[in-house]
């Protein structure tokens, strides 16, 4: 069995599984045995070289997953095997192997697996996060957290900061010793003062990669006290609950007021419209290449950092988040500690929150758009806070299960042309020339387009054959007339744009198309309707007369052809018997009628119609076609005599019937002679 697992051979494993089940009383022992062998094989897989480890791990995981689906091992074995593989792998190897967890997320969320895998995957991800450095492996930590947010259901409380804890271990270290900070700032100031103006030519060579050159950047004077005030605010950012203590809030208020006053007094220069897009693109490239999880706190850098729009935005967003938390209602703020702001503190928070938004709007590039997006994000955070206060209810239960309501349109404000100002006196005078501008536009004096009836009257007369208008003199041949006709018909004719069959050929002849459209449009106008109907009636009569004439000519030709055939047959019969007498018409006997009925059995309906006998009455008394044909011929012979020539003259109206009858009569005459 171990060899079958090593070779990933399902056929051998199936046979061994069946054989083992026969030797034990409980099937669970076989499954436990296979679980152990699969995990053991997982450890063997990790002994291969690093470059082949991911490939072998993927093959083994897929094999174990298929074994689970076939019932050869436990449901938890695939994820436990993957957990063991990750535990014995290095961090670099885990970055590649974690892709197996991400790729099979949908498999893990299937019914029957989610209950077993949820806690194991949560433990696997937490073990990985404990091994990783949040600063050195930020990207991998983000992958794991993003996977958990997609895998776990929204109501899973392990993925929610349910108690509202803060990361108080996030400590920002800076030069708290004032003499040291003062000496560093003095050294920085003396360095700038000692820099000669002629050194500007070599400034570009000293710029670091990705640094943006700012023309005439205003230098911000940072004092040691300002340095201490700015970085000491970070302890309140990492633990906002300190601000509910009155003494700490006074310190926070003093330091924050000084920092925001410095930013207000030293606003960043606004970029020119043509340069703003270029600077934004440059900053985007820099942000994609370099990302600092924590800013440096050297006194030498603070003046430069305050000149950076990204640095300012990050600090102001921090402040806005703290303000929102202080004003938010949370069930996890213990009432005993009186975590509520007084009226003066609430006013300070409200005023300075607006001030932070104004500073963000003034921070380029695209400050206004940035503030609009930030406000929407903060609104969403407020809604999530309310959701947590409600003990994280299942949002799917609140979804609308009924039919969607129709959107109610907003009522429009009626247009009043009397109260109109177009900006200039002349335009307003032109627009208010008449009390009702719309009525003035519809005045008959402004109608220069002919009516549809007037326009198509002449072309319809030219189409009438009785008018005898020659083709070359018809107005439809003119290109200018076709253009005007197309414009007018498209606007007023209902049949100009009509649905065509999918396989119909496109219209390529504009002349024929316009003639057909004008003719069809004339049918809908009362002035031309009667004339067109009269014309169509005359055309139909002509076609009918022409068709009857052609039919009569064709019938005459058939009769002449049959007569020639009968004459030929008569002559040949006369020569054969050496009789000088002309062809005689002997009467048809019952045997002759029976023979004709046999040959004409497939034409019983046509025969009944030609003879003038109701076939339905015969169907009730006769079962076969041949019997019905015989009764039809018998009844005709009794009424009209038993002349074969008379019968042929009657059947000549149908070509199929006469051909068969003629052949049969020929046989009858040959037999009688």
Automatic annotation (TrEMBL):
Disordered: annotated segments: 533-586
UniProt-listed InterPro entries: DEATH-like_dom_sf (IPR011029), THO_THOC1 (IPR021861)
Skewed-composition ranges (Polar residues): 569-582
Bias (Basic and acidic residues): 533-568
Domain of life: Eukaryota
GO term, biological process aspect, one: mRNA export from nucleus
GO cellular component, one term: THO complex part of transcription export complex
Protein name: Death domain-containing protein
Organism: Caenorhabditis nigoni
Gene designation: Cni-thoc-1
